[in-house]
Design brief:
Chain lengths: 114, 118
């Protein structure tokens, strides 16, 4: 158990709808990462928070994507006007200590856009 | 540009066989970190090991061992006496310290699916 939980585990939505995912790391995880993983691929970095500050965003994170981490605890990832290409597993990872310490991944949220 | 290549898409072995998973990386950075993660069928990525670019010592942890060679930009992973529970997708990942504004984000390979049959 990595201590990182994600909700929901599965989400099915229709194209054009908005969806929001939640990630709850443990309190010691001052750093939080979001990744996206499509079938047969490795995870791809989306965005990074240090405490409540969003410090890095990937070019993959289009204008339809927004992430927050209020109070530096849980984080949410919202996708507006979903497209079929957004179908993927969305992974959250928490980390503590040095910038290059291991990241602890949650179970992911599998999004299917119909 | 930074890149991680895991050329083996799938490997199938019989229990108790040894198996090596290959990882080749590309980076301009002189300071970087390499990782291996395991993703079992349940889906949750499990951290296995981290190495920094200044430490080329091989590491052994039980049945697992890692061979880091900067000269060939490789960080290979060997499982000795494989077991059915080792069946999973294994990912190699790179994190650069100085380029691309990296904040510790991981660059993953495509993974190698290992099937260990009884």
């Amino acid at each position: 158990d990595t201590g990182v939980s994600q909700d929901p585990r599965h989400k099915i939505t229709k194209r054009g709808q908005n969806v929001t995912f939640r990630c709850d790391p443990i309190s010691e995880h001052n750093r939080l990462y979001w990744y996206r993983q499509t079938l047969g691929q490795g995870p791809e970095f989306l965005t990074y928070f240090q405490n409540e500050a969003q410090l890095e965003k990937s070019r993959l994170l289009s204008d339809r994507f927004s992430a927050e981490r209020p109070k530096g605890s849980f984080s949410t990832l919202e996708i507006q006007r979903t497209e079929q290409g957004d179908s993927a597993m969305y992974l959250c990872a928490g980390a503590m200590g040095g910038l290059y310490n291991e990241q602890f991944f949650g179970p992911g949220t599998r999004l299917t856009v119909l | 540009a930074q890149k991680v290549t895991q050329a083996q898409t799938e490997i199938s072995v019989v229990e108790k066989e040894d198996v090596t998973l290959d990882c080749v990386y590309e980076t301009r950075d002189t300071t970087y970190y390499l990782f291996w993660y395991k993703q079992p069928p349940s889906g949750e990525l499990v951290f296995l090991i981290r190495r920094n670019s200044f430490d080329e010592q091989n590491e052994i942890s039980g049945r697992y061992s890692w061979n880091f060679q900067k000269s060939t930009s490789s960080f290979n992973f060997t499982i000795t006496a494989s077991q059915v529970v080792d069946s999973a997708v294994y990912f190699c990942a790179l994190s650069e310290a100085n380029y691309g504004g990296s904040q510790g984000n991981l660059i993953f390979g495509k993974g190698t699916k290992l099937s260990v049959k009884p």
